[in-house]
Structure formats: structure tokens, C-alpha cells
């Protein structure tokens, strides 16, 4: 071995040291063994010049003579070295103390300089901010002037086109009349006779006793005027006094007062408010947040999803897509999305997910928020962030299992143009029966939180505010501008307008600019763009219940709608002339034009005209549906699902992971940091606003109460047309039967911990009350 390692020429440098000489029976035995080593085992080394030596020192001084280490020869050397080291370190300590003292004096001077510099920077920043605000104001005024000019020019162009179209239409109509007169004189005489008869008799859409008002008077056109700004869809410029409702008559006084206080006072200054938000110093786990929901005041302890031990599970998350605050956007996943997720699953080696997607065919559903950046007009890769809050545009994929359970499969945290550049995570549990632990799966729980943040934005701004509140306001204003108050359509719709105008005014002046803009991860400009884009994309006929269900891949149940049957009964009697009478109703045509026109409601998806009785029935049903059951469904569950902030926050408070590796590294503390625990005002807004907006519907404002009072024999004394009163009697019976249907449907849900009875007619609001 030595030869292989060092070569034979180095043998002369080797020392063979023998030991244990003090343990031999005799010296002769040692000599014999030493000779044996030299002649046999180390012969080559000896011949090469290696030196044999003996280690015959003993442990006599320590063990036999009893000397301590310092008294031995080795100990004296060791002691001398130790003393040198001690002296060296003492000197270094003295020098370090001197350096520390010098640094301390220097820090005092440096701190003073930094404070002076910080004050100077703040002063410069304030000046810069003031100059920037002035510049922005100038730019805003300049932009407004340009926009006003463009609006005026556009309005003039619209008017010119409208008049041109009208003249063309009239010319063609007259030409057709003259041709018919020339070809069939007898038929023309019959037509004239029929027209004379219609002029003499009161038109059927009006009750005879209420038809005296001159249609040329303009109804409420002068009072009800549309306002147009860049921030909101068209709305009522000024609410007439008799239609105004005080906020104290709309909201619960206590909740309204607390919310108002949050706008102007730091919650830390109000002990009562501060206690409603968690404290970071006492919040170390998610369970701490769950526990505090039970320790709040009795009013706040009203049931919410946080009282459920399983609130964070896939089952509760999935159930909210059907029976939560936003059950209106989940749909069958388009093939392109299924293929995109499948491709990512292959890349992540998730063959189990691929097999589920390949076997699911049409049972894959999606919540798609990927269009946020397009709607807001921002770059596909731009980060959603404002004032330390983060937003996202998630995409969530679900599998509707054979047993009827909806199970989340995958979530893209924030879609940035392509799946390859976005972060996508797949559920470890590919089926609802998987026994895997969900409580500690923090990356997946974080992904579900992202999906909820995206849904919060879609639900609150588009589904709730735009699709019910703001769309209904356009209908209200247009109706006042075009219908006689005694017109049967006006009589049908008016009960469903209570409170809406004043409530919407509060939303524009306070809710959006001062609350929602402080709650989301989107800038005010992005929110305004999203709001207006949602209005422009509103599909009036596409959102008729049967059409919407079909488009989203659900069964059509149009024949079962009680509201449709009620409207049909009224209008078939009010329009005995059928389609021809509908077409000849000038008020209906004026109404449609008012809703669609640039100077009116600007709702381009609204029908240009109503040509048939069925179209009229669908239109009226849609108006009532929007104001009553639709708004009830998307509004009154906010308290249950959103007052417990971790279930559905409006924003995240830390940046989203940029990669799957980063996402998989997240733990419980990261989820806590993503919540506004350090921002008590934001936490209180998230918890308080849903409570404020979900105050229980008063008994005298339900759809069932409307049917009951309208069908009463005395209803006619208050201006209710007889045709509506008769139909309301049947509506009342249908609604009472429907209560059992709602309760039975709720009992059939897999989730029996949270009944779904929000559409109970005894709880469904008659209008957009709050």
C-alpha cells in the first residue's frame, strides 16, 4: 500500500512506531515481536531505510504518582499556551470596547443627520405630491373637456343617424302603404276602419278608468333625466323628492353608524371597533381566527361560515359555487380550457388529474376570471396591486362527480395571458372521497383563497352592483320617461323599484369610491374600467333565465318559473290583440329606444323593439327577476360567507407566488400574512360591509307579501289594476307552494350544515332594497 501511494524511494522518510511496551510480560517478549515485525511485516520498509522507534513512555506521572495535568511536563507547556491566549483575548476585548464606544458616538451623530435628511425628503415628497396632484387635475380637466366635446359630437352624430333612419323608415312605410292601397282598395278601407275603431276605444294596455292622462304631456321626462359620466353607466341625474329614501331607512342604524365611523376615524382610536378586528400579537394560527368569531359580540356572533369546523375544505369551497353569494357564473368548461389544464397536468406529471379530465367529458365546470386584465385595459402581465393590496384573475376547474358532488381539481392563481406563464396548482385530492388531510395543505388552501378574491371582485362589482342595481336603474328611469303611470307595464314594474334609486346613489357616492376602492387589490381606475366593461357586456336577452341556464350547461326550467306565469296571465289579458297590439304600442317602442340610445341607457343588448307578446312577457319577467329573486340570491348571503374574512377576502396583503415552487413552499404563516391582520380598518371593512348589505328583509317587503296585499280585494282602492289583482291571487298560491319546493331542494343537498333557503318567497325581497 505504501509503495502504491508514495513509491519505494520515500521509505527512508517513514518511521515505524511500536507501542504498549509497558504492558509486556518481559522485555525479551518485546524484542522478539519487534524482530518479527522488522523481518516479516515491514521488511521492505526496513531495507528501504525506514526507521523503527519505540514509544515506551508511560502514564506513570498521572495515574501512579497522582500529579495534576499542570504539574506534568506536557501540562506546563499547555498552561503557557493558555495564558498567552487569555492575554490576547483580554487585549482584544479592550480594543472592541473602545471601538463600540466610538461607533456609539458616531451613531448619535449619524442618526441626527438621517432624521434631518428624512424630514427634507418628506418635505420634498409632499411638494412633489402636491405638484403631481395639480398636474393630474389639469390633465383630468383637459381630458374631461376633450371627452365632453367627443360626447357632444357623438350625440349629434347619433341624432343625425337616428333622424335619417327614422325618415328612411317612414318613407319605406309610406311607399308600402301606397302600394297596398293601389293593389287592394277594399283591404285599405278595412284597415282604415280598424284604425278608427282603435282611436275611439281606450287602448287595452291601459285600464279604462286610468287612461285620461294626455300622452303628449311627457309623463316624467322633465323630472327623470339620465346623467352620463365616465365613471358609471347612465343613471338618474337627480332623484325627485318623493322617490328619495334616507340611508337610515335603508340600512341597520348600528351597522351604518359603525361603517361611517370607519371611513373617518382610525379604528385603533375606537376601542369598540378595534376589538372587532384580530390582533397580530394574539393571532398565530388560522384556528385563532376561527376561535375569535365565537368571542365577538352577540350581534356579530350570528352564524357565518367560520362557525363551521370544515369551512376551509374542498366540499365547502365547491358548494359555494352553486349556493354561495355568486351562483351565476359557474359553467361547463370550454374544451380549450380543459385541454390547457390537461397540458399543464402532463407537464407537472399529474397523470391522475389527466385521467380524471379525460374521463369527465362534459362534467368539467369552470369559474373563469381570466378576462380581468382585458376588461380593465391593462397589460396581460401587469401585477394587480394598490396600496399594499394585491388582486388576481384566477381560473378554477371543477369536476362534477357521478354522485352529484362538485370537486375542485385545479386553480390558476392569476392568469397572465398563457397557462405556461401562470402559476397553476392541482388538488392532491383528485376525488371528494380522498382521505388526504386538507387542514395542512397550505398551498392548496392559498390557491382557493386566490379564487375567492377573484370571485369577490366579479360578484360585488359585476354580478351584484352592475347586473342588478345599475341595470335596474336604467329600466326605472327609462320607464318614467316613456310610460304613462297608468300603463299596465308601469303598474307591473313599479312595486319592484322601492329604494333602488337612493341606494344606487349611495353606491356611486360612497360604496364604490370610499369603500370598495379601499378593499380590493385593483386601482380605482381599474375598478371603474371593470364596472363599465361589465355594463357594456351585459346581455339582456342572453341572461333570461332559460337562456342563461342553457348557455352555462344546466337544464332549462322556464315552464316552472312562477314569475313568468304571473306576468303571462296579466299581459295576455291586457293585450288581447296579441303580437299586433304589442307592435303598435308606441310607448313600448319609445321605451326600448330610451334604454338603448346614447342619450339614454346605452344598454346595447336590449331589444330594439318588442314585436311579439312572448317577447313582452320575457322582458317584464326579466325586470322583475332582476330586482327580486336575482338580487336576493346574490345579496343576502354576503353576511354568512363574507363576514368571516378568511373564507372570502376582497384582496391579498402579500405578493402572489411567481412559481409553483414558491407556492408549494407556503405555510400557515404565509396565509395569515395574506390577510389584513396588520390592517384593522381593512379587516373591518371586509367584515362589516357584507353585514351592512345583508340586513334581513322586512316581512312587509317580501315578494310573498306583495302577492298577498296585491291580491286583496281592497288593492283596487290603491290603484292596483284588476287584471294584476286577479293574477296576484294565483301568484300568492304558487309562491306559498314554492316555499316547500325551496325547503325540499335544500334537504337534498349533500351539505346539510348550511340550508339554502335564500329564495324562500317569504324571505325574497320585492325589490333592490339594500
TrEMBL record:
Stored SUPFAM superfamilies: Lipoxigenase
Keyword terms, alphabetized: Dioxygenase, Metal-binding, Oxidoreductase
GO molecular function, one term: metal ion binding
Sequence ranges assigned to domain Lipoxygenase in this UniProt record: 168-770
GO biological processes: linoleic acid metabolic process; lipid oxidation
Domain of life (superkingdom): Eukaryota
PROSITE patterns found in the cross-reference section: LIPOXYGENASE_3 (PS51393)
Disordered as annotated region, ranges: 127-153
PANTHER family in alphabetical order: LIPOXYGENASE
Protein name per the record: Manganese lipoxygenase
UniProt source species: Gymnopilus junonius (Spectacular rustgill mushroom)
Amino acid at each position: 500500500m505504501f509503495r502504491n501511494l508514495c513509491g519505494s524511494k520515500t521509505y527512508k522518510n517513514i518511521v515505524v512506531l511500536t507501542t504498549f511496551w509497558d504492558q509486556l510480560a518481559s522485555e525479551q517478549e518485546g524484542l522478539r515481536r519487534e524482530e518479527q515485525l522488522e523481518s516479516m511485516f515491514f521488511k521492505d520498509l526496513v531495507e528501504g531505510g525506514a526507521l523503527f522507534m519505540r514509544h515506551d513512555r508511560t502514564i506513570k506521572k498521572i495515574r501512579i504518582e497522582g500529579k495534576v495535568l499542570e504539574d506534568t511536563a506536557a501540562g506546563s507547556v499547555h498552561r503557557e499556551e493558555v495564558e498567552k491566549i487569555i492575554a490576547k483575548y483580554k487585549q482584544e476585548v479592550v480594543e472592541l470596547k473602545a471601538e463600540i464606544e466610538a461607533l456609539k458616538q458616531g451613531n448619535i451623530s449619524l442618526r441626527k443627520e438621517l432624521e434631518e435628511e428624512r424630514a427634507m425628503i418628506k418635505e420634498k415628497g409632499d411638494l412633489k405630491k402636491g405638484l403631481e396632484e395639480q398636474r393630474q387635475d389639469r390633465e383630468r380637466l383637459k381630458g374631461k373637456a376633450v371627452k365632453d366635446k367627443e360626447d357632444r359630437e357623438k350625440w349629434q352624430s347619433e341624432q343625425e343617424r337616428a333622424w335619417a333612419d327614422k325618415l328612411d323608415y317612414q318613407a319605406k312605410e309610406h311607399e308600402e302603404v301606397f302600394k297596398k292601397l293601389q293593389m287592394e282598395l277594399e283591404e285599405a278601407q278595412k284597415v282604415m276602419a280598424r284604425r278608427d275603431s282603435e282611436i275611439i276605444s281606450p287602448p287595452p294596455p291601459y285600464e279604462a278608468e286610468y287612461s285620461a292622462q294626455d300622452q303628449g304631456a311627457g309623463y316624467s321626462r322633465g323630472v327623470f333625466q339620465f346623467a352620463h359620466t365616465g365613471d358609471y353607466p347612465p343613471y338618474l341625474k337627480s332623484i325627485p323628492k318623493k322617490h328619495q329614501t334616507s340611508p337610515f331607512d335603508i340600512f341597520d342604524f348600528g351597522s351604518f353608524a359603525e361603517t361611517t365611523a370607519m371611513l373617518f376615524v382610525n379604528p385603533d382610536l375606537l376601542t369598540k371597533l378595534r376589538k372587532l378586528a384580530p390582533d397580530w400579537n394574539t393571532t398565530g394560527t388560522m384556528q385563532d381566527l376561527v376561535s375569535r368569531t365565537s368571542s365577538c359580540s352577540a350581534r356579530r356572533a350570528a352564524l357565518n361560515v367560520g362557525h363551521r369546523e370544515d369551512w376551509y375544505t374542498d366540499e365547502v369551497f365547491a358548494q359555494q359555487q352553486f349556493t354561495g353569494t355568486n351562483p351565476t357564473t359557474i359553467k361547463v368548461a370550454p374544451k380549450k380550457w380543459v385541454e390547457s389544464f390537461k397540458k399543464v397536468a402532463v407537464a407537472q406529471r399529474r397523470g391522475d388529474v389527466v385521467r380524471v379530465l379525460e374521463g369527465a367529458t362534459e362534467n368539467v365546470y369552470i369559474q373563469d376570471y381570466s378576462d380581468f386584465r382585458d376588461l380593465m385595459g391593462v397589460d396581460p402581465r401587469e401585477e394587480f396591486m394598490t396600496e399594499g393590496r394585491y388582486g388576481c384573475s384566477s381560473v378554477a376547474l371543477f369536476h362534477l362527480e357521478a354522485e352529484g358532488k362538485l370537486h375542485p381539481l385545479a386553480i390558476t392563481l392569476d392568469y397572465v395571458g398563457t397557462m405556461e406563464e401562470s402559476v397553476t396548482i392541482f388538488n392532491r385530492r383528485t376525488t371528494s372521497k380522498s382521505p388526504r388531510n386538507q387542514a395542512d395543505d397550505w398551498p392548496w388552501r392559498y390557491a382557493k383563497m386566490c379564487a375567492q378574491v377573484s370571485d369577490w371582485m366579479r360578484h360585488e362589482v359585476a354580478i351584484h352592483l352592475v347586473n342588478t342595481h345599475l341595470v335596474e336603474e336604467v329600466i326605472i328611469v327609462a320607464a318614467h320617461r316613456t310610460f304613462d303611470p297608468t300603463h299596465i307595464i308601469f303598474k307591473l314594474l313599479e312595486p319592484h323599484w322601492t329604494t333602488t334609486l337612493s341606494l344606487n346613489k349611495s353606491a356611486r357616492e360612497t360604496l364604490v369610491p370610499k369603500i370598495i376602492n379601499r378593499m380590493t387589490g385593483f386601482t380605482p381606475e381599474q375598478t371603474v374600467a371593470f364596472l363599465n366593461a361589465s355594463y357594456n357586456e351585459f346581455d339582456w336577452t342572453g341572461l333570461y333565465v332559460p337562456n342563461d341556464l342553457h348557455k352555462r350547461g344546466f337544464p332549462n326550467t322556464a315552464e316552472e318559473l312562477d314569475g313568468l306565469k304571473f306576468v303571462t296571465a296579466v299581459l295576455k289579458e291586457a293585450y288581447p290583440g296579441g303580437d299586433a297590439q304589442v307592435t303598435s304600442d308606441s310607448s313600448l317602442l319609445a321605451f326600448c329606444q330610451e334604454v338603448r340610445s346614447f342619450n339614454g341607457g346605452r344598454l346595447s343588448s336590449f331589444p330594439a323593439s318588442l314585436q311579439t307578446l312572448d317577447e313582452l312577457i320575457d322582458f317584464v319577467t326579466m325586470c322583475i327577476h332582476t330586482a327580486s329573486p336575482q338580487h336576493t340570491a346574490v345579496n343576502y348571503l354576503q353576511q354568512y360567507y363574507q363576514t368571516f374574512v378568511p373564507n372570502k377576502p376582497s384582496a391579498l396583503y402579500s405578493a402572489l407566488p411567481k412559481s409553483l415552487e414558491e407556492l408549494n413552499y407556503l405555510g400557515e404563516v404565509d396565509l395569515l400574512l395574506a390577510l389584513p391582520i396588520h390592517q384593522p380598518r381593512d379587516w373591518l371593512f371586509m367584515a362589516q360591509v357584507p353585514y351592512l348589505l345583508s340586513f334581513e328583509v322586512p316581512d312587509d317587503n317580501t315578494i310573498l307579501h306583495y302577492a298577498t296585499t296585491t291580491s286583496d280585494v281592497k288593492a283596487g282602492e290603491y290603484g292596483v289594476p284588476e287584471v294584476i289583482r286577479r293574477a296576484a291571487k294565483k301568484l300568492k298560491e304558487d309562491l306559498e307552494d314554492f316555499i316547500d319546493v325551496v325547503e325540499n331542494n335544500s334537504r337534498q343537498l349533500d351539505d346539510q350544515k348550511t340550508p339554502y333557503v335564500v329564495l324562500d318567497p317569504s324571505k325574497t325581497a320585492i325589490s333592490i332594497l339594500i
